[in-house]
Protein backbone atom coordinates (compact mmCIF):
# COMPACT_ATOMS: atom_id res chain seq x y z
CA UNK A 1 0.00 0.00 0.00
CA UNK A 2 2.69 2.47 0.98
CA UNK A 3 4.40 1.87 -2.30
CA UNK A 4 1.31 2.58 -4.37
CA UNK A 5 0.52 5.72 -2.41
CA UNK A 6 3.99 7.04 -3.03
CA UNK A 7 3.70 6.38 -6.73
CA UNK A 8 0.47 8.28 -7.11
CA UNK A 9 2.19 11.31 -5.61
CA UNK A 10 5.18 11.35 -7.91
CA UNK A 11 3.77 10.21 -11.22
CA UNK A 12 2.62 13.55 -12.66
CA UNK A 13 6.16 14.98 -12.66
CA UNK A 14 7.99 11.98 -14.07
CA UNK A 15 7.77 12.58 -17.76
CA UNK A 16 11.28 13.83 -18.51
CA UNK A 17 13.06 11.82 -15.86
CA UNK A 18 15.75 10.23 -18.06
CA UNK A 19 16.57 13.71 -19.23
CA UNK A 20 19.91 13.70 -17.37
CA UNK A 21 22.17 14.50 -20.30
CA UNK A 22 23.93 11.14 -20.02
CA UNK A 23 24.52 8.28 -22.46
CA UNK A 24 24.48 10.34 -25.65
CA UNK A 25 26.39 7.41 -27.15
CA UNK A 26 26.22 3.82 -25.84
CA UNK A 27 27.81 3.65 -22.37
CA UNK A 28 31.17 1.86 -22.20
CA UNK A 29 32.85 0.30 -19.21
CA UNK A 30 33.36 -2.81 -17.15
CA UNK A 31 30.89 -4.76 -14.99
CA UNK A 32 31.82 -7.59 -12.66
CA UNK A 33 28.78 -9.85 -12.94
CA UNK A 34 29.27 -12.27 -15.82
CA UNK A 35 32.89 -13.03 -14.93
CA UNK A 36 33.00 -12.67 -11.13
CA UNK A 37 29.36 -13.34 -10.11
CA UNK A 38 28.58 -13.35 -6.40
CA UNK A 39 31.98 -14.49 -5.20
CA UNK A 40 32.13 -13.15 -1.64
CA UNK A 41 34.83 -15.51 -0.37
CA UNK A 42 37.69 -13.12 0.19
CA UNK A 43 39.29 -15.53 2.66
CA UNK A 44 39.93 -18.31 0.16
CA UNK A 45 39.80 -16.32 -3.07
CA UNK A 46 41.00 -12.83 -2.19
CA UNK A 47 41.92 -11.84 -5.75
CA UNK A 48 38.54 -12.66 -7.28
CA UNK A 49 35.96 -11.85 -4.63
CA UNK A 50 33.63 -8.86 -5.02
CA UNK A 51 35.57 -6.25 -3.07
CA UNK A 52 37.06 -2.81 -3.28
CA UNK A 53 40.37 -4.44 -4.22
CA UNK A 54 38.88 -6.04 -7.31
CA UNK A 55 37.22 -2.81 -8.39
CA UNK A 56 40.35 -0.73 -7.79
CA UNK A 57 42.49 -3.24 -9.67
CA UNK A 58 40.17 -3.16 -12.67
CA UNK A 59 40.05 0.66 -12.57
CA UNK A 60 43.86 0.73 -12.53
CA UNK A 61 44.03 -1.57 -15.56
CA UNK A 62 41.37 0.32 -17.45
CA UNK A 63 43.46 3.44 -17.07
CA UNK A 64 46.90 1.87 -17.66
CA UNK A 65 46.11 -0.65 -20.40
CA UNK A 66 44.43 1.61 -22.93
CA UNK A 67 40.77 0.83 -22.23
CA UNK A 68 40.04 4.30 -20.88
CA UNK A 69 41.68 5.92 -23.89
CA UNK A 70 39.51 3.74 -26.12
CA UNK A 71 36.39 5.12 -24.40
CA UNK A 72 35.65 2.69 -21.55
CA UNK A 73 34.55 4.84 -18.65
CA UNK A 74 32.26 3.16 -16.08
CA UNK A 75 33.67 0.63 -13.59
CA UNK A 76 30.63 -1.16 -12.24
CA UNK A 77 29.88 -3.30 -9.21
CA UNK A 78 26.98 -5.74 -9.53
CA UNK A 79 25.09 -7.65 -6.83
CA UNK A 80 26.58 -8.81 -3.51
CA UNK A 81 28.32 -5.64 -2.37
CA UNK A 82 26.15 -4.69 0.65
CA UNK A 83 25.81 -6.00 4.16
CA UNK A 84 22.78 -8.16 4.71
CA UNK A 85 21.25 -5.55 7.01
CA UNK A 86 20.59 -1.87 6.44
CA UNK A 87 22.08 0.54 8.95
CA UNK A 88 20.04 2.05 11.83
CA UNK A 89 19.25 5.05 9.60
CA UNK A 90 17.77 2.72 6.97
CA UNK A 91 20.67 3.26 4.61
CA UNK A 92 22.51 0.55 2.73
CA UNK A 93 25.91 -0.34 4.14
CA UNK A 94 28.71 -1.85 2.05
CA UNK A 95 30.05 -5.14 3.41
CA UNK A 96 32.69 -4.00 5.93
CA UNK A 97 35.07 -6.89 5.27
CA UNK A 98 35.11 -6.51 1.50
CA UNK A 99 34.66 -2.74 1.23
CA UNK A 100 36.47 -1.56 4.38
CA UNK A 101 37.15 1.94 3.02
CA UNK A 102 33.50 2.53 2.15
CA UNK A 103 31.86 3.45 -1.14
CA UNK A 104 32.65 7.14 -1.00
CA UNK A 105 36.37 6.39 -0.81
CA UNK A 106 36.06 3.86 -3.63
CA UNK A 107 34.24 6.39 -5.80
CA UNK A 108 36.95 8.95 -5.04
CA UNK A 109 39.60 6.44 -6.07
CA UNK A 110 37.84 5.56 -9.31
CA UNK A 111 37.30 9.24 -10.08
CA UNK A 112 41.00 9.92 -9.48
CA UNK A 113 41.67 7.57 -12.39
CA UNK A 114 39.41 9.63 -14.63
CA UNK A 115 36.74 6.92 -14.51
CA UNK A 116 33.23 6.61 -13.11
CA UNK A 117 31.77 4.21 -10.56
CA UNK A 118 28.63 2.12 -11.10
CA UNK A 119 26.67 0.28 -8.44
CA UNK A 120 23.79 -2.20 -8.34
CA UNK A 121 20.48 -2.44 -6.57
CA UNK A 122 17.16 -4.16 -7.09
CA UNK A 123 13.67 -2.79 -7.34
CA UNK A 124 12.26 -5.66 -5.28
CA UNK A 125 12.35 -6.52 -1.61
CA UNK A 126 15.68 -8.32 -2.03
CA UNK A 127 18.35 -8.44 -4.73
CA UNK A 128 18.72 -11.61 -6.80
CA UNK A 129 21.39 -12.82 -4.36
CA UNK A 130 19.18 -11.95 -1.37
CA UNK A 131 20.79 -8.72 -0.22
CA UNK A 132 18.48 -5.85 0.84
CA UNK A 133 16.38 -4.54 -2.04
CA UNK A 134 15.22 -0.99 -2.66
CA UNK A 135 11.47 -1.48 -2.39
CA UNK A 136 10.16 1.07 0.15
CA UNK A 137 13.64 2.70 0.18
CA UNK A 138 13.82 4.21 -3.30
CA UNK A 139 14.41 7.77 -2.17
CA UNK A 140 16.83 6.84 0.60
CA UNK A 141 18.87 4.65 -1.73
CA UNK A 142 18.98 7.20 -4.54
CA UNK A 143 20.25 9.79 -2.07
CA UNK A 144 22.77 7.37 -0.58
CA UNK A 145 24.21 6.62 -4.03
CA UNK A 146 24.41 10.31 -4.86
CA UNK A 147 26.10 11.05 -1.52
CA UNK A 148 28.69 8.38 -2.24
CA UNK A 149 29.47 9.86 -5.66
CA UNK A 150 28.02 7.00 -7.68
CA UNK A 151 27.71 7.64 -11.45
CA UNK A 152 25.62 4.70 -12.67
CA UNK A 153 22.92 2.55 -11.09
CA UNK A 154 22.00 -0.85 -12.46
CA UNK A 155 18.52 -1.61 -11.15
CA UNK A 156 17.40 -5.24 -11.17
CA UNK A 157 13.97 -6.87 -10.99
CA UNK A 158 14.33 -9.92 -8.73
CA UNK A 159 11.77 -10.36 -5.95
CA UNK A 160 9.30 -7.89 -7.41
CA UNK A 161 6.21 -8.01 -9.62
CA UNK A 162 6.58 -7.18 -13.30
CA UNK A 163 3.25 -5.35 -13.13
CA UNK A 164 4.96 -2.83 -10.80
CA UNK A 165 7.88 -2.02 -13.12
CA UNK A 166 5.94 0.67 -14.97
CA UNK A 167 5.58 2.56 -11.68
CA UNK A 168 8.72 1.61 -9.80
CA UNK A 169 11.36 2.31 -12.43
CA UNK A 170 10.03 5.79 -13.26
CA UNK A 171 9.82 6.46 -9.52
CA UNK A 172 13.49 5.55 -9.08
CA UNK A 173 14.40 7.68 -12.09
CA UNK A 174 12.56 10.54 -10.40
CA UNK A 175 14.41 10.11 -7.12
CA UNK A 176 17.76 9.87 -8.90
CA UNK A 177 16.94 13.11 -10.69
CA UNK A 178 15.95 14.74 -7.38
CA UNK A 179 19.41 14.12 -5.94
CA UNK A 180 20.79 16.60 -8.46
CA UNK A 181 23.62 14.20 -9.34
CA UNK A 182 23.57 12.89 -12.92
CA UNK A 183 23.41 9.11 -12.43
CA UNK A 184 23.13 6.90 -15.48
CA UNK A 185 20.10 4.66 -14.93
CA UNK A 186 20.57 1.12 -16.23
CA UNK A 187 17.28 -0.79 -15.99
CA UNK A 188 16.45 -4.48 -16.06
CA UNK A 189 12.95 -3.33 -17.00
CA UNK A 190 11.33 -4.61 -19.32
CA UNK A 191 12.78 -8.01 -18.41
CA UNK A 192 9.89 -10.33 -17.55
CA UNK A 193 7.14 -8.30 -19.21
CA UNK A 194 5.30 -9.97 -22.07
CA UNK A 195 4.68 -6.68 -23.85
CA UNK A 196 6.39 -3.42 -23.04
CA UNK A 197 5.83 0.29 -23.35
CA UNK A 198 9.20 1.32 -24.74
CA UNK A 199 8.19 4.97 -24.73
CA UNK A 200 7.80 4.81 -20.97
CA UNK A 201 10.99 2.77 -20.54
CA UNK A 202 12.99 5.23 -22.58
CA UNK A 203 11.67 8.13 -20.53
CA UNK A 204 12.95 6.54 -17.32
CA UNK A 205 16.07 4.67 -18.33
CA UNK A 206 19.39 5.38 -20.06
CA UNK A 207 19.63 1.71 -20.98
CA UNK A 208 17.28 -1.24 -20.62
CA UNK A 209 17.88 -4.96 -20.72
CA UNK A 210 16.37 -6.88 -23.60
CA UNK A 211 16.61 -10.39 -22.19
CA UNK A 212 18.10 -12.87 -19.78
CA UNK A 213 21.62 -12.65 -18.40
CA UNK A 214 24.34 -13.41 -20.91
CA UNK A 215 26.36 -16.54 -20.19
CA UNK A 216 29.86 -17.50 -21.28
CA UNK A 217 28.86 -19.35 -24.46
CA UNK A 218 28.30 -18.86 -28.19
CA UNK A 219 24.73 -20.18 -27.78
CA UNK A 220 24.00 -17.34 -25.42
CA UNK A 221 25.43 -14.79 -27.88
CA UNK A 222 23.43 -16.27 -30.77
CA UNK A 223 20.29 -16.15 -28.64
CA UNK A 224 20.75 -12.41 -28.28
CA UNK A 225 21.41 -11.93 -31.99
CA UNK A 226 18.31 -13.96 -32.93
CA UNK A 227 16.26 -11.78 -30.60
CA UNK A 228 17.59 -8.62 -32.25
CA UNK A 229 16.93 -10.13 -35.68
CA UNK A 230 13.25 -10.61 -34.76
CA UNK A 231 13.02 -7.08 -33.34
CA UNK A 232 9.66 -7.72 -31.63
CA UNK A 233 7.60 -4.55 -31.13
CA UNK A 234 10.23 -2.80 -33.26
CA UNK A 235 12.25 -2.25 -30.14
CA UNK A 236 15.18 -1.14 -32.33
CA UNK A 237 13.40 2.12 -33.06
CA UNK A 238 13.49 3.21 -29.40
CA UNK A 239 17.25 2.94 -29.03
CA UNK A 240 19.26 6.11 -29.59
CA UNK A 241 21.08 9.00 -27.92
CA UNK A 242 20.10 9.10 -24.24
CA UNK A 243 18.62 5.59 -24.06
CA UNK A 244 19.83 2.24 -25.35
CA UNK A 245 18.58 -1.31 -25.64
CA UNK A 246 21.02 -3.45 -23.66
CA UNK A 247 21.79 -7.06 -24.66
CA UNK A 248 23.95 -7.42 -21.51
CA UNK A 249 27.69 -7.56 -20.99
CA UNK A 250 30.48 -8.16 -23.47
CA UNK A 251 32.14 -11.53 -22.78
CA UNK A 252 35.16 -11.06 -25.06
CA UNK A 253 38.27 -12.42 -23.32
CA UNK A 254 36.47 -14.97 -21.14
CA UNK A 255 36.46 -18.77 -21.52
CA UNK A 256 33.55 -19.63 -23.79
CA UNK A 257 34.20 -18.08 -27.21
CA UNK A 258 36.64 -18.80 -30.02
CA UNK A 259 38.38 -15.88 -31.69
CA UNK A 260 35.88 -15.90 -34.59
CA UNK A 261 33.01 -15.93 -32.10
CA UNK A 262 34.53 -13.05 -30.14
CA UNK A 263 34.74 -10.97 -33.32
CA UNK A 264 31.15 -11.84 -34.22
CA UNK A 265 29.89 -11.06 -30.71
CA UNK A 266 31.74 -7.76 -30.41
CA UNK A 267 30.98 -6.76 -34.00
CA UNK A 268 27.25 -7.33 -33.47
CA UNK A 269 27.19 -5.41 -30.17
CA UNK A 270 28.78 -2.55 -32.12
CA UNK A 271 26.21 -2.84 -34.92
CA UNK A 272 23.39 -2.85 -32.36
CA UNK A 273 24.67 0.37 -30.73
CA UNK A 274 24.73 -1.62 -27.51
CA UNK A 275 26.27 -0.51 -24.27
CA UNK A 276 29.73 -2.10 -24.08
CA UNK A 277 30.27 -3.29 -20.54
CA UNK A 278 33.16 -5.74 -20.57
CA UNK A 279 32.97 -8.54 -18.02
CA UNK A 280 36.43 -10.01 -18.12
CA UNK A 281 39.49 -10.34 -15.92
CA UNK A 282 41.66 -7.54 -17.27
CA UNK A 283 44.68 -8.94 -15.38
CA UNK A 284 45.09 -11.90 -17.70
CA UNK A 285 43.18 -11.19 -20.88
CA UNK A 286 44.48 -12.59 -24.18
CA UNK A 287 46.21 -10.02 -26.39
CA UNK A 288 43.83 -10.76 -29.25
CA UNK A 289 40.78 -10.13 -27.04
CA UNK A 290 42.26 -6.93 -25.67
CA UNK A 291 43.01 -5.68 -29.19
CA UNK A 292 39.46 -6.49 -30.24
CA UNK A 293 37.95 -4.61 -27.28
CA UNK A 294 40.10 -1.61 -28.22
CA UNK A 295 39.53 -1.80 -31.99
CA UNK A 296 38.95 1.85 -32.91
CA UNK A 297 37.12 1.07 -36.17
CA UNK A 298 34.56 -1.17 -34.51
CA UNK A 299 34.19 1.22 -31.58
CA UNK A 300 33.51 4.05 -34.03
CA UNK A 301 30.55 2.08 -35.41
CA UNK A 302 29.27 1.44 -31.88
CA UNK A 303 29.69 5.09 -30.87
CA UNK A 304 28.31 6.62 -34.07
CA UNK A 305 26.46 9.77 -32.97
CA UNK A 306 23.22 8.88 -34.78
CA UNK A 307 22.90 5.84 -32.52
CA UNK A 308 20.86 3.69 -34.89
CA UNK A 309 20.45 0.07 -33.85
CA UNK A 310 21.15 -2.25 -36.79
CA UNK A 311 18.20 -4.19 -38.13
CA UNK A 312 18.00 -7.40 -40.14
CA UNK A 313 18.09 -6.74 -43.86
CA UNK A 314 18.34 -10.26 -45.26
CA UNK A 315 18.44 -13.85 -44.17
CA UNK A 316 20.44 -16.13 -46.48
CA UNK A 317 21.85 -19.66 -46.64
CA UNK A 318 18.75 -21.30 -45.13
CA UNK A 319 18.70 -18.84 -42.26
CA UNK A 320 22.31 -19.45 -41.23
CA UNK A 321 23.45 -16.08 -42.55
CA UNK A 322 22.08 -12.83 -41.25
CA UNK A 323 22.77 -9.51 -42.96
CA UNK A 324 22.27 -6.54 -40.66
CA UNK A 325 22.62 -2.89 -41.68
CA UNK A 326 22.59 0.45 -39.95
CA UNK A 327 23.09 3.99 -41.16
CA UNK A 328 25.93 6.05 -39.74
CA UNK A 329 26.66 9.77 -39.95
CA UNK A 330 27.26 11.27 -43.40
CA UNK A 331 24.98 8.68 -45.04
CA UNK A 332 27.46 5.92 -44.46
CA UNK A 333 26.06 2.43 -44.17
CA UNK A 334 27.52 -0.31 -41.98
CA UNK A 335 26.83 -3.88 -43.04
CA UNK A 336 27.39 -7.00 -40.96
CA UNK A 337 27.25 -10.44 -42.50
CA UNK A 338 27.02 -12.98 -39.70
CA UNK A 339 27.40 -16.71 -40.32
CA UNK A 340 25.77 -18.92 -37.68
CA UNK A 341 26.70 -22.11 -39.52
CA UNK A 342 29.17 -24.57 -38.02
CA UNK A 343 29.85 -26.77 -41.04
CA UNK A 344 33.58 -26.22 -41.13
CA UNK A 345 34.08 -24.04 -44.18
CA UNK A 346 33.40 -20.41 -44.95
CA UNK A 347 30.06 -19.60 -46.58
CA UNK A 348 30.14 -17.51 -49.74
CA UNK A 349 27.48 -14.81 -49.63
CA UNK A 350 26.44 -12.80 -52.68
CA UNK A 351 24.53 -9.52 -52.32
CA UNK A 352 23.97 -6.50 -54.52
CA UNK A 353 24.49 -2.92 -53.43
CA UNK A 354 20.76 -2.32 -53.70
CA UNK A 355 20.01 -5.27 -51.38
CA UNK A 356 21.96 -3.47 -48.71
CA UNK A 357 20.45 -0.03 -49.22
CA UNK A 358 23.43 1.27 -51.23
CA UNK A 359 21.21 3.20 -53.62
CA UNK A 360 23.39 6.21 -54.39
CA UNK A 361 24.23 6.05 -58.10
CA UNK A 362 27.57 7.81 -57.52
CA UNK A 363 28.74 4.69 -55.70
CA UNK A 364 30.45 3.95 -52.41
CA UNK A 365 33.91 3.33 -51.11
CA UNK A 366 33.92 0.18 -49.01
CA UNK A 367 36.21 -0.31 -46.03
CA UNK A 368 36.65 -3.28 -43.72
CA UNK A 369 34.87 -2.64 -40.42
CA UNK A 370 37.68 -4.16 -38.34
CA UNK A 371 40.84 -3.05 -40.15
CA UNK A 372 39.66 0.10 -41.91
CA UNK A 373 41.36 -1.18 -45.08
CA UNK A 374 39.75 -0.23 -48.39
CA UNK A 375 38.23 -3.28 -50.00
CA UNK A 376 36.59 -1.84 -53.07
CA UNK A 377 34.14 0.41 -54.72
CA UNK A 378 30.48 -0.53 -55.21
CA UNK A 379 27.33 0.91 -56.71
CA UNK A 380 23.68 -0.13 -56.44
CA UNK A 381 24.01 -2.85 -59.06
CA UNK A 382 27.42 -4.16 -58.00
CA UNK A 383 27.64 -7.72 -56.84
CA UNK A 384 29.23 -7.97 -53.44
CA UNK A 385 30.66 -11.38 -52.60
CA UNK A 386 31.93 -12.15 -49.12
CA UNK A 387 33.32 -15.33 -47.62
CA UNK A 388 32.20 -15.55 -44.03
CA UNK A 389 33.77 -18.01 -41.60
CA UNK A 390 31.56 -20.33 -39.54
CA UNK A 391 30.56 -18.61 -36.29
CA UNK A 392 32.16 -15.59 -37.90
CA UNK A 393 31.38 -12.16 -39.20
CA UNK A 394 32.33 -9.73 -41.94
CA UNK A 395 31.62 -6.06 -41.34
CA UNK A 396 32.11 -3.35 -43.90
CA UNK A 397 31.33 0.33 -44.07
CA UNK A 398 30.09 1.96 -47.28
CA UNK A 399 30.89 5.67 -47.64
CA UNK A 400 29.13 7.59 -50.44
CA UNK A 401 31.57 9.03 -52.99
C1 LIG B 1 16.39 16.34 -13.75
O1 LIG B 1 15.34 16.51 -14.69
C2 LIG B 1 15.32 17.80 -15.27
C3 LIG B 1 14.04 17.95 -16.08
O2 LIG B 1 13.89 16.91 -16.98
C4 LIG B 1 16.57 17.98 -16.08
O3 LIG B 1 16.60 19.25 -16.71
C5 LIG B 1 17.77 17.85 -15.15
O4 LIG B 1 18.98 17.96 -15.88
C6 LIG B 1 17.73 16.53 -14.43
N1 LIG B 1 18.79 16.49 -13.45
C7 LIG B 1 19.54 15.42 -13.22
C8 LIG B 1 20.59 15.57 -12.18
O5 LIG B 1 19.38 14.34 -13.76
C1 LIG C 1 3.25 4.37 -22.80
O1 LIG C 1 3.89 5.29 -21.97
C2 LIG C 1 3.67 6.64 -22.35
C3 LIG C 1 4.59 7.50 -21.50
O2 LIG C 1 4.45 7.20 -20.16
C4 LIG C 1 2.20 6.96 -22.19
O3 LIG C 1 1.98 8.31 -22.58
C5 LIG C 1 1.41 6.02 -23.07
O4 LIG C 1 0.03 6.22 -22.84
C6 LIG C 1 1.74 4.57 -22.74
N1 LIG C 1 1.10 3.72 -23.75
C7 LIG C 1 0.37 2.68 -23.42
C8 LIG C 1 -0.17 1.88 -24.54
O5 LIG C 1 0.16 2.38 -22.26
C1 LIG D 1 7.42 -2.59 -37.17
O1 LIG D 1 7.71 -1.72 -38.25
C2 LIG D 1 7.38 -2.25 -39.51
C3 LIG D 1 7.91 -1.33 -40.58
O2 LIG D 1 7.84 -0.01 -40.19
C4 LIG D 1 5.86 -2.45 -39.59
O3 LIG D 1 5.52 -3.02 -40.81
C5 LIG D 1 5.46 -3.40 -38.45
O4 LIG D 1 4.06 -3.50 -38.42
C6 LIG D 1 5.95 -2.89 -37.11
N1 LIG D 1 5.68 -3.91 -36.12
C7 LIG D 1 5.26 -3.63 -34.90
C8 LIG D 1 5.02 -4.81 -34.01
O5 LIG D 1 5.05 -2.51 -34.52
C1 LIG E 1 51.03 -9.95 -25.55
O1 LIG E 1 51.45 -8.60 -25.56
C2 LIG E 1 52.54 -8.32 -24.70
C3 LIG E 1 52.73 -6.82 -24.65
O2 LIG E 1 52.53 -6.22 -25.89
C4 LIG E 1 53.75 -9.09 -25.19
O3 LIG E 1 54.85 -8.85 -24.34
C5 LIG E 1 53.43 -10.58 -25.18
O4 LIG E 1 54.50 -11.30 -25.73
C6 LIG E 1 52.16 -10.86 -25.98
N1 LIG E 1 51.77 -12.24 -25.78
C7 LIG E 1 51.49 -13.06 -26.79
C8 LIG E 1 51.11 -14.44 -26.42
O5 LIG E 1 51.53 -12.69 -27.94
UniProtKB/TrEMBL annotation:
Domain of life: Eukaryota
Any Gene Ontology CC annotation: cytoplasm
Pfam annotation, one family: Melibiase_2_C
Alpha galactosidase A C-terminal domain ranges (all copies): 322-392
Family matches, as InterPro entries: Aldolase_TIM, GH, Glyco_hydro_27, Glyco_hydro_b, Melibiase/NAGA_C
Gene3D superfamilies the UniProt entry points to: Aldolase class I, Golgi alpha-mannosidase II
Keyword Signal on entry: yes
Any GO BP: oligosaccharide metabolic process
Keywords: Disulfide bond, Glycoprotein, Glycosidase, Hydrolase, Signal
UniProt xrefs under CDD domains: GH27
Enzyme Commission (EC) number: 3.2.1.-
GO molecular function: alpha-galactosidase activity
Signal peptide boundaries: 1-17
Protein family membership: Belongs to the glycosyl hydrolase 27 family.
Binding partners and assembly: Homodimer.
The name this protein goes by in its record: Alpha-galactosidase
